[in-house]
């Protein structure tokens, strides 16, 4: 499945809930079951995402041509939003990650309810994911 197809599938899965507040609640519930957790030993200054008011830590390693991502966040809401990004990009090739922008927040109507600081934080997380992918692009 391409990254674009994966993004469309995520949007379709979450769009079954009509009310955007209930949809956001569903995203928070999904993040509680996230398999992308980061152990405390990896929550360092080097893995912390700058630009996020609420602490977020993110790492990525290349496995079988796909970037394997793990993260943690202190705020349940931030954790839920970052979890969507990580779920989207996890396992994708570095080239796909670099060239595919996340449209799911807009498509799902979640962007309009986010504060400017949360939007900036998500932008910072996206930038970190992209940076991790760029490190593994073939020259």
From TrEMBL:
<dbReference type="InterPro" id="IPR003808">
    <property type="entry name" value="Fe-S_metab-assoc_dom"/>
</dbReference>
<feature type="domain" description="Fe-S metabolism associated">
    <location>
        <begin position="12"/>
        <end position="130"/>
    </location>
</feature>
<protein>
    <submittedName>
        <fullName>Fe-S metabolism protein SufE</fullName>
    </submittedName>
</protein>
<dbReference type="Pfam" id="PF02657">
    <property type="entry name" value="SufE"/>
</dbReference>
<comment type="similarity">
    <text>Belongs to the SufE family.</text>
</comment>
């Amino acid at each position: 499945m391409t990254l674009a197809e994966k993004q469309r599938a995520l949007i379709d899965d979450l769009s079954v809930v009509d009310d955007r507040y209930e949809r956001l609640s569903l995203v928070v519930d999904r993040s509680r079951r996230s398999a992308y957790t980061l152990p405390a030993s990896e929550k360092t200054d080097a893995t912390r995402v700058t630009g996020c008011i609420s602490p977020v830590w993110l790492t990525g390693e290349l496995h079988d041509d796909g970037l394997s991502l793990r993260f943690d966040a202190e705020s349940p809401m931030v954790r839920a939003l970052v979890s969507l990004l990580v779920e989207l990009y996890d396992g994708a090739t570095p080239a796909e990650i670099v060239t595919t922008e996340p449209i799911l927040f807009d498509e799902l109507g979640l962007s309009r309810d986010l504060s400017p600081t949360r939007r900036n934080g998500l932008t910072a997380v996206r930038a970190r994911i992209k940076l991790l992918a760029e490190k593994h692009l073939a020259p």
